[in-house]
Amino acid sequence: MAKFSQILKPLLILLTAIAPATAAELAQLSVTPDKCVALRKGQTCYQKLRFQFSTINKGNYCLIASNQSKPLHCWTTTAGGKFIHQHASDSAVDFALINEQRVTLATTAVSIAWVYKKSRKRSRWRLF
Fold first, then answer.
1. What percent of the chain stands above pLDDT 90?
2. Do 47 and 93 form a contact (C-beta atoms < 8 A)?
3. Alpha-carbon distance 20 to 103, whole Å?
4. pLDDT in tens, 81-111
5. 3-state secondary structure the chain
6. pTM (2 d.p.)
7. What residue segments make up the domains of the chain, in order of their start?
8. Could you tell me which CATH number the domain at 21-116 has?
9. CA 41 to CA 39: how far, in whole Å?
10. What is the per-residue pLDDT across 64-89, written as a single tens digit (0 to 9) for each?
11. From residue 35, how far is each of 17, 60, 98, 114 by CA, in Å?
């Protein structure tokens, strides 16, 4: 019995030293692809985004975008889900997974890249 308590005591100390994880720390949100490419700087980028999330608890969750007031999609009584979104933006957008209390559980972002940084300048031919 003494050996058992010697093994169990350090294990209990270790478990109490670890802070209990919150729901926000145990939620994951990912987006694929995480970069949208437009031809020129300032142009709108169009991309099909695939979101996936997972949490440890079943609940009601919504996906929101920083540039919109309404949720993109909501799930009820689930611990995970997927969503495909037709994205159109000319700037980077942050996305967040929130619960019913509007607490942010996880975040991700989609950045914008351009093929050509500056607009093309027309060269005029001069004969004289």
1. 59
2. no
3. 18
4. 999 999 999 999 999 999 999 999 999 999 9
5. CHHHHHHHHHHHHHHHHCCCCCCCCCCEEEEECCEEEEEECCCCEEEEEEEEEEEEEEEEEEEEECCCCCCCEEEEEEEEEEEEEEEEECCCEEEEEEECCCCEEEEEEEEEEEEECCCCCCCCCCCC
6. 0.72
7. 21-116
8. 2.60.40.2470
9. 7
10. 999 888 999 999 999 999 999 999 99
11. 39, 28, 22, 10
Nearest to 42 by CA among 91, 86, 87, 92: 91
Cα distances (angstroms) measured from residue 101 to each of 4, 15, 29, 80, 106: 44, 29, 18, 18, 14
Residues 126 and 48: their CA atoms lie apart, in Å, by 45
